[in-house]
Design brief:
Blueprint (H helix, E strand, L loop, with lengths): L10 E6 L2 E6 L5 H6 L1 E8 L3 E8 L3 E7 L2 E6 L9 E5 L3 E5 L4 E5 L6 E8 L11 E3 L6 H4 L2 H8 L3 H9 L6 E3 L2 H6 L13 E2 L7 E3 L3 E6 L5 H6 L2 E7 L4 E7 L3 E15 L5 E8 L3 E4 L4 E17 L6 E3 L11 H8 L3 H13 L3 E2 L5
Antiparallel strand pairs: 1-2, 2-3, 3-10, 4-9, 4-11, 4-12, 5-8, 5-10, 6-7, 6-9, 8-13, 14-15, 15-16, 16-21, 17-21, 17-22, 17-23, 18-19, 18-20, 18-21
């Protein structure tokens, strides 16, 4: 069973004056369809605006850089509980299945947001499909003027204008006057919608090694609703994330830096041994073991597991699956008792993030 697991850059879906949307297509990487995951990247220029839409996948958005506002309406919520939120680098926002959102860059520089999705029920395996409400490809323009007129209790002439006036597709650039009409995020609203994973207390932090932070649904109800776990890994120069596996597929996006990734799959076969760089994405199938090592400038990654209650197994550190009674280790590795004891001592003091040996 051979899988193509090579890291990928996204393809251009659309680019306009307001920004661009880029997606990772299952046609280019069949493993995304097999793992039932999807991903996309939204870039909004200043005053860039993404028209209201919803998607066929539950997903999370991670702000790689910049600031922006997002309007989010989860099905079943009332107008009073809809949210318009301000986002900044490091923020994670879960977007439940079929939730309507629109995005606006009110900052002075580009904003970049990466979306990582569970595509189990997607129309196209391994891809996120969007449904627009307005514009030439939107639902409103597709219905006949008669139906639009009846729905909004207006005459047919006004219905035609309502459906056809917006000529932009997905991404626009607002005029200065239009940008002024966009409301400011409500800072007084209790924030149950987002968490900043970059600023969260790390689960693991190692001097000269880096840190790892995971957001779980048990502490973040909206994340539980989308059924995902989100992790943020920062590796210092030449540091390594020890090998691990998960009970469900994982997807990693390299937010910064360069490094090396190795993946071991069925029958102990090394199925990937390659360099990765900023902007690339790679998928680790369920139960495959992955190790990540940073180059001289360090490395930053964000990832999802397609279950909010996934099991993670470690090959190194005190929580390793090999950190059992010495006899079992000795038999499993077929080494001397002395080497077994050294191995055990290393495991007892080790962590999932390993600093470079020369520090």
């Amino acid at each position: 069973m051979d899988m193509e697991l090579s890291p990928m850059f996204p393809a251009t879906f659309t680019e306009t004056e307001g920004g661009g949307y880029y997606n990772w297509a299952a046609a280019e990487s069949p493993v995304m369809g097999e793992a039932k995951v999807g991903a996309g990247k939204l870039v909004l220029k200043p005053r860039g605006f993404a028209l209201p839409h919803y998607a066929d996948c539950p997903k999370v958005g991670y702000v790689v850089e910049g600031v922006c506002g997002v309007g989010l309406n989860i099905p079943g919520n009332t107008k009073e509980t809809m949210a318009f939120l301000g986002l900044k680098k490091g923020d994670v926002i879960p977007i439940p299945y079929a939730s309507v959102s629109w995005w606006c860059n009110y900052g002075d520089s580009d904003v970049v947001i990466v979306f990582l999705a569970d595509a189990t029920n997607a129309y196209v395996p391994g891809e996120i499909t969007y449904f627009l409400l307005t514009g030439p490809l939107g639902h409103l323009a597709a219905f006949s003027p008669e139906f639009v007129a009846k729905t909004y209790r207006i005459n047919v002439e006004k219905a035609e204008k309502l459906a056809d006036s917006q000529k932009g597709v997905l991404l626009l650039k607002l005029s200065e006057e239009e940008a002024q009409t966009i409301p400011k995020p409500n800072e007084e609203l209790p924030n149950i919608w987002t968490q900043n994973i970059d600023a969260s207390c790390p689960d693991v932090e190692v001097n000269n090694g880096g840190k790892s932070t995971t957001l779980k649904g048990s502490q973040f109800p909206l994340l539980e609703q989308v059924g995902l776990n989100v992790s943020h890994l920062v590796l210092a120069a030449k540091a390594t994330r020890a090998p691990s596996y998960a009970s469900h597929p994982r997807m990693f996006y390299v937010a910064n830096g360069t490094g090396k990734v190795e993946i071991v799959g069925l029958q102990g076969k090394l199925v990937l041994n390659t360099k990765v760089e900023s902007g690339q994405l790679f998928v680790v199938p369920k139960l495959f073991m992955v190790a990540i090592s940073a180059d001289e400038q360090g490395m930053e990654l964000v990832s999802i597991v397609t279950s909010s209650r996934a099991v993670i197994g470690e090959l190194g550190s005190k929580s390793s699956v090999l950190n059992t009674i010495p006899l079992v280790v000795q038999i499993s590795l077929n080494v001397t008792p002395e080497l077994t004891q050294q191995f055990k001592q290393m495991m007892e003091t080790g962590t999932t993030i390993v600093p470079p040996l020369d520090l």
